[in-house]
Design brief:
This protein has three helices and seven strands, in the order H-E-E-E-H-E-E-H-E-E. The chain is an alpha+beta fold. A three-stranded mixed sheet has the order 1-3-2. A two-stranded antiparallel ribbon has the order 4-5. Strand 4 (about 100) and strand 5 form a beta hairpin. The radius of gyration is 14 Å and the shape is globular.
C-alpha cells in the first residue's frame, strides 16, 4: 500500500474504509450522504454536522463527516470505530432518531443501542453520556 502522506490520499483511504463500514453495518444507506474531511477537532476523534453543508460530485447536499487530524496516528481499528460512531449519527438523522441532546453533545441510550448493534463497545462519560466508543 502506498504511504498516506497527502490529504487527498488520506481522505480516499478513509472513504474506502467508510464504504466497507456502510456496506457491513448500514446496508449501504449512507452512500452519497456524507463528505469526509480531516480537520482538527479539539477533544474529539471526529464529528458529523447536523445539516448538509457540502455538495457532492452530483451537486447533492451532504453531511460533513470529519475525522480529527490530531488523532490520525491511532491504530486503524480505532479510526474505523470513529467512522462507525459518526456513521451511527448519520443513520440516526436519516431515520429521525434523536440520539443526542444538549446541542448534540450528550449521547443518549438510543445512540448506545445503535452503536452496540454495530459491534462498538460503548462506555458512559459522566458529562457526555454514551459517547466513548471502542472497536470490539
Amino acid at each position: 500500500m502506498k504511504a498516506l502522506q497527502t490529504y487527498n490520499r488520506s481522505v480516499q483511504y478513509l472513504n474506502k474504509v467508510m464504504k466497507l463500514i456502510d456496506a457491513d453495518y448500514f446496508n449501504g444507506e449512507l452512500n452519497g450522504v456524507y463528505t469526509i474531511t480531516i480537520q482538527s477537532t479539539l477533544g474529539a476523534y471526529g464529528h458529523v454536522t447536523t445539516s448538509k453543508v457540502w455538495k457532492n460530485e452530483r451537486g447533492e447536499a451532504t453531511y460533513e463527516l470529519n475525522v480529527g487530524a490530531d488523532y490520525l496516528s491511532r491504530p486503524i481499528e480505532n479510526i474505523s470505530a470513529t467512522l462507525l460512531h459518526e456513521g451511527c449519527h448519520i443513520y440516526a438523522m436519516l431515520h429521525g432518531i434523536k440520539d443526542v441532546s444538549n446541542r448534540g453533545i450528550y449521547h443518549n441510550a438510543k445512540f448506545k443501542a445503535l452503536a452496540e448493534a454495530r459491534d462498538l463497545i460503548v462506555s458512559r462519560h459522566e458529562k457526555y453520556g454514551w459517547t466513548i466508543t471502542e472497536p470490539s
